[in-house]
Amino acid sequence: MGKLRAILPSKVGLKALAVGAVAVASIGIAGQASAASGDYSVNGARIWANPGSGGPLGLGYIGQGADVYCWNGEWNYHRNRATGVRGYSHDSVIWWSGGIPHC
Question: Which of 21, 43, 57, 98 could be bridged to 36 by S-S, CB 3.0 to 4.6 A?
Answer without folding.
Answer: 98
